[in-house]
Structures are given as C-alpha cells and as structure tokens.
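*Target chain*
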Amino acid sequence: MVTANSNLDGEPSKPLIREITQADIGPVIDLLTRGFSRPRHYWETGLARLRDRVSPPDMPRYGYMLDAGGRPVGVILLISTLRSVGDFQKLFANLSSWYVEPNFRSYATLLYKRATAFKEATYLNVYPDTKIRPIIEAFGFRCYSAGQLLAVPALVRDKKGLRARIVDVHSIYNSALAAAERQLLEVQSGYGCIAICCKTDGYIRPFLFAPRVVKGVIPCAQLVYCRSITDFVEVAGTVGRHLLGHGRPLVLIDANGSIAGIPGKYFADRAPKYFKGPTAPMLGDLTDTEATIFGY
C-alpha cells in the first residue's frame, strides 16, 4: 500500500525543510522523545522557554524540521542570542538536538546545512555525541574546550590582597552592573541557575552556575557565565565557600587543561565544545544554550 508519505515505489517522499512553528510543537516533542533518552517534560520545559524568550531578528525561534506530508520526521533546534564581545554585539547560535528518523537519514546533512546557513553567526555545539563529532568537524567546526575541570574552589584563598564578599544582585547599582548583564542574570536564574555577584574593592564580578550532580549522587555546580576565567580564579575561595554553604562543594569548569591556583582533577575529552564562525567563544559562558535553557 502506498501511504501519504510515500511515492509510488513505496519509498519516502522528499521532505521539506522549514522553520518549526508553534503549531508543530506537539509533534516535534513526540519526535524528540522518541529520538532521545529524555523524558517528555524535559522537552516541554525547554521548548516553552524558547517560546517565551526574545530571539534576534531574522533567526528562528525554535529551529528547523523536515516536514514529510505535514509531520516532522527530522529536527534540529537552534538557540540564538546576541552576546557582547568588546564594544560589539555578536550573533551566536547553539545547535541542539539533531535527530532524523531512520527512513529520512539521507536528508540529515541538508537539515544541518540549512541550520548553519547564517554567515554572520557563530555556531556552537556544546554537547556533541561522540559519533557526531567527526561529522561536525567535516562541516568546519573546531573544538574550543577539550574537557572539564572538576574543582574544589572552597579550599583555596582569594588572590593575595583582594578583599571579596558576596553581594545580592538586587543591591548593586546600575553603574556597577550594566542593565543587559543584570537582565542576563535574572533570566538565567529563572532557568534554575545560581546567580552570584562578588564585590572586590568596588568592582563587581558576576557569576552564574547551573546545578549538576556528579555520578548521580554528588551535587556540584557548573560555571556557565563569568566575564573571564581570571575573574573566577581571583575570587574562587569566596565563591567556592558560598557554594559549599548551599550544598555544592564541587564546580565544573570548561577548560583545556588544569587551571593554575584551582585544585581539582582535569578530565580530557569530557563534554568537549565546538564552534564554527567569525567569533571564538569565551570559556565559561554557556548562557542561552541548551546547558541553561534545557539543563541536563
């Protein structure tokens, strides 16, 4: 029997590549739930956050899908944002959750190429599966974070001569924390991140951490935003003891090796991160990616 999604030879019809719309969300969640070992509520929460967030102009709100006779048979999510890089706003887009049904796998690369067609954007792939890495490398992606440091910052002293203390983000004057950065902390906090501001002699150092669990039982925090890794290193003791007081003794930091002054163990090839585009990403910034919007 020839189905609505087949040609006269019984083969699948050529699907269309188009943006995901709000009307597609239910079937897209069905597809993602079949394709990944994640519970349905994981996708429902993440896609609801994509629906409610502000996307840069001309970028898709959710991403792209393969449409075969009105139903999604492939999907790739695209989380786009503008990041401040020096005095400029740069477009970044996190590719996530690439899945295509077996009968349509021959169209998978076309879907990926469509999602990476914006020349001005820097694309991120922050959790590529091992079997996917050779494919994205063939597409021109480069690794910018080769592993992770599992650190115990509470054990170290702050930079010599530095007086640091934790302050509430709402008590900080606008001159010390720009409106865009304050909004970033508030939005990411709404996703469940831990927002910390450390004051050192009039200078404010903002940090965001995503709650994580190591080996299923040990609570830790993953660094997902800082202005620079140096900012964290200089006040690691104060920040680490604050996190320890909240039941998070360990901190995960994306890195390319051990970090001087931070005790811990470096794990090479753990959660490597890739990019493609004109602007190299900064280590320690995973805001507006699946790491914060979807979590683990």
About this structure: Helices lie at 25-35, 40-52, 108-115, 133-138, 179-190, 229-234, 236-245, 290-293. DSSP finds eight helices and twelve strands in the chain. Confidence is low (pLDDT under 50) at residues 1-5. Residues 40-52 form the longest helix (13 residues).
